[in-house]
Amino acid sequence: MPGTATKWANWDLRRGGSPAGPLGGTDVIAGNWSPKVELYIDESWVDITRTSASEPGVFYEDRITISRGRADENQTANPSTCTFTLNNRDGRFSPSNPRSPYFGKIGRNTRVRVSVLQNGIRRYRFYGEISSWPVQSDVSGQDIRVQIQASGVTRRVSQGSSPLKSAVFRDMTSPKRTHIKAYWPLEDGMNSTNVAGGLANQLPAKILSGAVDFGAYSDWFATDPLANIGTGRIKGTVPPYTSTGETSIRFFVYVTTAVSGTYQNLISWTMTGSLPTWELALRNNGDLRLTVYDSDGVRTDTADMVYDLNQFGFAMLTIEVTQDGADVDWRILRTGPWTNTTGIHDSIGAAALTGTFTSETTGRVTSVTIGKDGGLGDVAIGHLTVGDSLSSYANSQSPFVGWSDESPRDRFRRILDEEGIDHSDVGISGNGTLLSNVTMGIQRSQTLVEILQGCEDTDMGLLYEPRDFLGVSYRTRAGLYNQVPVLTLDEANNELASPLNPVYDDQKIVNDVTLTRTDGSFVRTQQLDGPMSILDPPNGVGQYDTGPSMSLATDDQLADQAGWILHRGTVSEARYPAVSIQLSHPSFTSNLDLTNAALMVDIGDRIVVENPADELTAEDVSLIVVGYTETFDQFLYDMTFNTTPESPYEIGIVDDTPEWRVDTDGSELTNFIDETQTSISVTVTDGALWTTDSNEWPFDIRCSEASSSAGEVMTVTAVNGSSSPQTFTVTRSVNGVVRAHDAGTDIRLAQPAIVSL
């Protein structure tokens, strides 16, 4: 045990003062938790936790407070936050102070991490960024503090309101596209006077003459609206690059009507080498023709390539030019179409036209012109690229369909990889069959936060920020199924800081769901009977409707998704929004395993409270943690978990243990029974009879006037009768509930199998 002087010094350290009088001293103990706050400075972590009261660093007077996840079970995830107070008497935590050893090294979005020591293991509780350093001083000028509030990375990335660029734009400008040398998306706004270059430091293309109808074509959902070229003539200069002997030019084109005249030039380009001018024209019959001029201006026309306006109005054209020894090979490749409404690739094969120019040379592309003849009209062109390799556009099929048919988990991973943000996800271990088969629709031009939220909305899992690195994490819906509790608390053993407070309200009720697929159809489903149905009380709760929109690849997924929303919204049990514990209480300090378990609880984990007060419920309370707040110093440690009922995520698995059974469609007591009867008569009101196969016994049923998770649980040891009513032999009161029941009381499985998505 520490001596009196050391205790006094530690108390003074916590309140932020200096060691006093004869009891003063510089040595202080670390306390129960040894909190550590570190800043990332000069590419290493610097500990700013004080070891004496006079040192600059963290005040414990205000304690450290960390919040993660959701403050309420119905809200979306909030950025993680961490607040603490710094002693700044020497000015070292003033970013603009040139006398500070941290001058020029701390400031906006300095990284910070917080950890505690438990059982010899340092457990990280928070990773984030400090966005501001509000220096405050008292009137004496002696007490100078910095009230720090750090946040997770989503606070910063959500500050911008501009949507991310289109799926095609992002792919074409990805760092992996090292062979793309020039790129003009043609996604410019309707009042543009230039055509923006998509690559960094690339000059815009110029409109030489005529009028371009920007934003006129919007049926390709994988991109922002593209331009109808109209009477415009657009020329772009290709930045110099070293020729590789390979050239690949690609662009999207949409043609609905025949062009005026015999033909109109789609694109032309100039190159170094003996064939300086190339032109690709669209004829009024829908054919394509390639024309090439040598250095003397001698013209060569290739054979026509049938474009077929009716079948190939929506396509991607690629022109490849390759040095093949002493000759130049060329190929025109047409791929597509992609259906406009869903973005799903309609694989009908590709058409190609090839040829060779003998004894010629090729080099690099120097310029590209769109609509040279000024008469393309309503022909839409977009995403014009110049590459120095035939593989410049490899693996671009998925972005060209807007990543449609992508799983929410894969989209979460991919979009964060593209943004350079660290991430992790939690699925379900040991049972790959439970991974979600739901797939998303087209990735639209939305903000990063909106895209991530769309992943959560479709999969119906949990987005959150991790505590052990700076990034974003995701708990899949499948990762919430059938969990073993991470933490089990015993209320009777004083392991709760405050009693459980059940809430009987309608906050989460949803019994009428109209789910719409983005740019697709819709489906409606309702809970038509039972205590959570749309029926007026007392037969139900009345109508609670919702009409969300969801990104889904096909309309076929609507019914299952709507059914799961209805399933979650018709849970007939009390909510327990908060569960509070004190890790500094003897029930934890004397139980190392319990303390470790509490510190391991993360977002999406299951916790259970055993032996709740008799007046609340007869059974253990099982919950999913959707967020939490923890407040601590070196001696005290409080945690409050924000929770939601776990029961919706208990699903049936074929051939799993324990065995899961399909519930009755409708059954009730035939007659009144008292508290002791062990033979009861059950009338089946809807659906199949109960099994009389002795191999299926025993199983538990719930007898409840409310058809809810409350009521008396009985174990059925035998069922007799080939018609309704049937006779059950039961063991009474297995959950501690002892009561009589009236005729007509609802009978159902205590643990029915739920079919997951």
Overview of the structural elements:
- The structure is a single chain.
- This protein has 757 residues and is mainly beta.
- Among the domains are: 154 residues, no CATH class; 215 residues, Jelly Rolls (Sandwich), CATH 2.60.120; 61 residues; 84 residues, Thrombin, subunit H, CATH 2.40.10.
- It contains nine helices and 44 strands.
- Strands 1, 2, 3, 4, 5, 6, 7, 8, 9, 30, 35, 36, 37 and 38 form a 14-stranded mixed sheet that branches. Strands 11, 12, 15, 17, 18, 19, 20, 21 and 25 form a nine-stranded antiparallel sheet that branches.
- The two termini are 56 Å apart.
- The N terminus is likely disordered.
Assign the CATH topology of one domain.
Jelly Rolls
Helix content: 10-25%
Total number of helical segments?
A: 9
Question: What is the CATH architecture annotation of one domain?
Answer: Sandwich
Distance from first to last alpha carbon: 56 Å
**Radius of gyration from the alpha-carbon trace, in angstroms:** 34 Å
Number of strands: 44
Uncertain stretches of 5 or more adjacent residues: 1-30, 338-349, 429-434
Strand content: 35-45%
- What is the mean pLDDT? 86
Provide the fold topology.
Layout: H1 4-15, E1 36-41, E2 44-47, E3 57-59, E4 64-69, E5 81-87, E6 110-118, E7 121-130, E8 135-137, E9 144-151, H2 153-157, H3 167-172, E10 180-184, E11 194-195, E12 205-209, E13 213-217, E14 226-230, E15 233-237, E16 246-254, E17 263-273, E18 277-283, E19 287-293, E20 299-301, E21 305-306, E22 314-324, E23 327-335, E24 351-357, E25 362-370, E26 377-387, H4 397-400, H5 408-419, E27 423-426, H6 448-459, E28 462-464, E29 472-475, E30 487-490, E31 512-517, E32 522-526, E33 545-546, E34 549-550, H7 558-569, E35 578-582, H8 586-589, H9 592-600, E36 606-610, E37 621-632, E38 637-645, E39 666-669, E40 679-686, E41 699-704, E42 712-720, E43 726-731, E44 746-749
Helix pairs in contact: 5-6
